């Protein structure tokens, strides 16, 4: 895979992850599902989605830094997602099954994106 294809793939990960987190924030604002509003989860998911979107946008202006932007943003997002999982486990976060499934799926997607970005080192060197 060449640098342009790799950049598109990394941007795709960033956009998909931001979309999932934006949807989760919408759910926790009460917009998509009634009874699932949770202010702290909405705020955290919104901030993480914004960071992923910022990395996506910056990757167009800083083409040579796409890999580093993806690594940084996805690492931040994974840390936030793991905090969210921890809050579910200890009982202070949202406790629904969809929340748990979303956090595990998002963690898996973020790990896949990080793996891909890590392996892309030679492409951008």
Describe this structure in words.
With 125 residues, the protein is mostly helical. The chain has helices at residues 3-28, 39-61, 66-90, 97-119, 121-124. The model has no long low-confidence stretch (mean pLDDT 90). The protein has one domain (3-124): Butyryl-CoA Dehydrogenase, subunit A, domain 3 (Up-down Bundle), CATH 1.20.140. It is elongated. It has 5 helices and no strands.
How would you describe this structure in keywords?
elongated; Butyryl-CoA Dehydrogenase, subunit A, domain 3; 81% helix; single chain; 125 residues; 5 helices; mainly alpha
What is the CATH topology classification name?
Answer: Butyryl-CoA Dehydrogenase, subunit A, domain 3
Number of domains: 1
| Gross morphology | elongated
The string of secondary-structure elements, in order, is HHHHH
Provide the CATH top-level class: Mainly Alpha
Uncertain runs: none
Number of helices: 5
Query: Beta-sheet strand percentage?
Result: under 5%
Given helix and strand content, the structural type is mainly alpha
Q: Under the CATH scheme, which architecture would be assigned? A: Up-down Bundle
Indicate the topology.
Layout: H1 3-28, H2 39-61, H3 66-90, H4 97-119, H5 121-124
TL;DR?
By secondary structure, the chain is an all-alpha fold.
